[in-house]
Amino acid sequence: MSDWRKSAACVGYDPALWFPGNSQLMRREAIHICHTCPVMMQCRKYAETNNQICGYPLQGIWGGKEFTPRKYRRSTPR
Fold first, then answer.
1. Separation CA 72–CA 75 (nearest Å)
2. Angle made by CA atoms 29, 14, 58, in degrees to the nearest 5
3. Model confidence over 25-71: pLDDT tens digits?
4. Contacts of 70 (CB under 8 A, 6+ apart)
């Protein structure tokens, strides 16, 4: 992962905020923080181009957008 994360507005916040589950309040707060972030687009691009982070399916709010785990695609059709 690149050094852009060191400049992210979310540094210092509880990471659980970016995994809000059913909490609309947490979701809105996380997205608001993302929209103040100087590296928001790098964060979103990372999420859009990666299926995993640290071996786990990528999910949560990244770059102001919510991501759900993606299914792996088969390389050959059935």
1. 9
2. 85
3. 999 999 999 999 999 999 999 999 988 888 888 899 999 999 987 65
4. 51, 57, 58
